[in-house]
Design a protein that fits this description.
The protein is mainly beta. The protein has one domain: monomeric porin ompg (Porin), CATH 2.40.160. The protein is built from 3 helices and 16 strands. The protein has a 12-stranded antiparallel beta barrel. The protein is globular and about 45 Å long.
Length: 310
């Protein structure tokens, strides 16, 4: 099948066939990234995957346009990855410092698969590290997070809509004491100068028995009774760059804790046809963990080893 020039997400926009030169150029650029730089365990995993999986034709040049939760901000768009696509998120990193002086960081390797049209299945393995002001330190798996995103419609005069079903499983020393399911609704509207996103999420279940510093999910997957966020982003397509900013308010799962307000911003950049990187930062204006935070991550886009239907 020839490469597609513009339809990164299935069902969105028209599909155009690029000239032969434009279809060949991404393949040539991808060759230079078959042997990735030294990136520790994540880099080794990516290298093995790239060499072991037969890649299907995939247009990943616009992956920077896809805003996943936590990369670099928490508010995401209403679109799933393309059908038959595979996205490996190489240990997205988040560092937080509270006003009390304690630090915590988390990494969450994830894999996302476009199994069905407009449907994305994702599994993450958050690893958390907490460092208290008294010298107490703890590093452990903070659960396993699984989610399914379904895009309800392509964007027209109405915004694109999506629903997400998510669950955090009690696996690991720093995981919740039980499973916590949640539901999220997403809306995305594109204007000529920017895109706007609205996220609303509700989590079911009682507060964890263990203290929040040792029993909650990782910093990249906080437990909130409810969360509402608004984000705006602007794309610079000639530079393969997306700039974004958000405002998020949430109520922790523990009803005794105050409501949190976060402001954040960041950027996503398409480093190669298959590799997108991101970084950002923000400040928690209120809440029990008020303070600043930084995020960084990268994602490799692959294709499932079967050909699309002709």
């Amino acid at each position: 099948m020839p490469a597609r020039a513009c339809a990164w997400r299935e069902g969105v926009g028209s599909t155009l066939r690029a000239p032969v030169v434009l279809r060949t150029l991404p393949v040539l650029l991808m060759i230079s990234f078959l042997i990735p730089p030294r990136l520790g365990v994540s880099g080794l995993f990516s290298a093995v995957t790239l060499l072991a999986v037969p890649l299907a034709p995939l247009s990943a040049q616009t992956d920077y346009y896809n805003t996943d939760a936590g990369r670099p901000v928490r508010v995401e768009d209403a679109y799933a990855i393309e059908r038959r696509a595979v996205e490996l998120q190489m240990a997205p990193f988040r560092l937080e410092r509270s006003r009390g002086g304690s630090y915590r960081w988390g990494i969450e390797p994830e894999i996302a698969v476009g199994l069905l049209p407009r449907t994305q299945v994702e599994v993450g393995f958050p690893l958390a590290h907490v460092e208290g002001v008294a010298g107490r330190r703890q590093t452990a798996l903070a659960g396993i997070e699984a989610s399914v995103l379904y895009n309800l419609n392509a964007e027209t005069r109405l915004p694109a809509l999506a629903i997400v079903a998510d669950v955090i499983l009690p696996v690991g020393a720093m995981a919740p004491d039980k499973a916590y399911p949640s539901l999220k609704a997403i809306a995305t509207k594109t204007l000529s100068w920017a895109r706007f996103h609205v996220n609303g999420q509700v989590t079911m279940g009682d507060a964890p028995i263990a203290p929040a510093t040792t029993g909650s999910a990782a910093p990249t997957a906080e437990l909130s009774r409810w969360l509402v966020g608004v984000a705006v982003d602007r794309t610079l397509p000639l530079r393969s760059l997306l700039l974004t900013a958000e405002l998020v308010t949430s109520q922790p799962i523990d009803a005794t804790e105050p409501t949190a307000w976060d402001v954040a911003g960041g950027a996503r950049y398409q480093l190669s046809p298959r590799l997108a990187v991101d970084g950002g930062g923000g400040y928690r204006l209120s809440g029990s963990d008020a303070g600043w935070f930084l995020t960084a991550g990268a994602a490799v886009s692959l294709g499932l080893p079967w050909s699309p239907r002709r």
